[in-house]
Amino acid sequence: ARIAQEREYEKLIDTANAPIFGIDVFGIVNVWNQKASDVTGYTKTEVLGQKLVEEYITDDYKTSVQEVLDKALMGVEMANYEFPIITSCGQQVDILLNATSRRDETGSIIGVIGIGQDITARIAQEKEYVRLIETANAPIFGIDVDGIVNVWNQRASDVTGFTKEDVIGTKLVENYITDSFKDSVQGVLTRALEGIEESNFEFPLVTKSGQQVDILLNATSRRHESGAIIGVIGIGQDITARIAQEKEYERLIDTANAPIFGIDEHGVVNVWNHKACDLTFYPKEDVIGHKLVEEFITDDYKESVQEVLTKALQGQEMANFEFPIITKSGKRVDVLLNATSRRDEWGNIVGVIGIGQDITARIASER
């Protein structure tokens, strides 16, 4: 029965779809299945009786592979150990190995069985992935589950002034995020580690020279081949110039000599400049976040003003539209309006900007 069981065991090993080898206590190969022959090009006849490490492992891995086998011979087994083996035609094949102690019927260790997986294609794919990240035209960083940086591409170095050597192995949030954004950035990364990814999150990074760089970030969960999340990859965009431009745009609007307001796609006021305050006596604090048409337009003009704004939200802009607005003191002010669609950086309409002119005096004289 034991002989029959051993033959069945040998048959299962030889027909397995994974490369399997075995060594005795002296490191001499005594098992070499068909898949091992397929992967390496060495037949069973060539390998049996040879020293595994001396003959088939690359010089730079001889010591570490020998250590794995020695430990298994002492009962300390190893899973998921990566090492290269050289094929009969001189190519390198990358193997992911589980090294298991082999025992006789008394329980004594008589060798090691190594069950491998050919991960050459995966390693090549990972190297290509690393190359693409490194040469990408966007700053890309990665962290592990403890928040420690393990990816930092050339563009990230260019943008921040920190080299890969400066950053790898350090805590991203603790070392490179401004205090006021530490909690929110940590929140984004923590959610990505839970599988909840985030797009278009804005935050500042502090450069090596102490300057602030504004980053627009997509945070993506990084997964092991088993699907387990092992970190986060952040793909960024340096929006420092855009933020500076937006601030200049806001300054120009606020100091313009014409009343200017803005609404979002829901008709809620999100721009109200100084001249609009002067004209209506409503300070910005009273208006921002409120519905423009519902709260500040006279009933007889609500429908027509709403129509102008709705058309502008659809890309149909309007020039020289006259309508009245009621000031905080209850007076009527007549306004000549240009309604312009407001767009984001991708061209999507996100609201309307209205540039007005106070024509109250002109209307009065015409009457």
TrEMBL record:
Statement: the UniProt record of this protein carries the keyword Kinase: yes
Domain PAC: 79-131, 199-251, 319-367
Gene Ontology terms describing biological process: detection of visible light; regulation of DNA-templated transcription
Catalysis: reaction(s): ATP + protein L-histidine = ADP + protein N-phospho-L-histidine
PROSITE patterns tied to this protein: PAC, PAS
Stored SMART domains: PAC (SM00086), PAS (SM00091)
Keywords, in A-Z order: Kinase, Phosphoprotein, Receptor, Transferase
Name of the protein this chain belongs to: histidine kinase
Record organism: Heterosigma akashiwo
